[in-house]
Amino acid sequence: DPRDKKSTKVLQLETAMGSAIECFEGAQAILIPRTRFAPVKTTNDMLALMSDAYEVTPDSRMVLKAERNGIPPDVKLDGMYKFVDDMQKLIPNGPPSLINCKKLAIVGKVVLGKGVVFEGTVKVTNASDEWKTLATGTYKDGSVIEL
Fold it and tell me: Which one of the listed residues 5, 6, 41, 123 is annotated catalytic?
């Protein structure tokens, strides 16, 4: 448990396993294009994936919608949203629309209202220690919203 400093440490072996492949005669690596899967390593990736920027294909793959031109939204959430249950506090009303969002940054204790739409590059900040809600609406390119 990464939240519990006393829990057993876990080492991720992706790099070591990638290096170890050379020890197996005839082993090869294959390149899987991003069009075949939507990697989720952080809650930043998860929020983008939950948004309308992605869709499920008839063969059950999650892919970027065509109008994204192969470029996913660049989402940067405050470190307080590192874990999924914490990210859920940000989006209790559902994920925002990111179909036309280039870059989204969220800093501080923010709750997104139902139906929030981000377009272009937008930053939302809350410097207080209290949770504040970003009202339903469309927030456009160049917006810096201070709650």
Answer: 41
Query: Does the active-site annotation cover 41?
Result: yes
Averages of pLDDT over each 10 residues, the chain, 147 residues? 75 66 76 70 94 91 90 96 95 97 97 97 96 96 88
Q: E strands within 35-126?
A: 54-56, 62-64, 74-77, 97-107, 110-112, 117-125
**Which residue's structure tokens are 């090869």?**
28
Claim: this prediction has a pTM higher than 0.70: yes
Consecutive H or E run containing 145: strand 143-146
What single DSSP character describes residue 136?
S
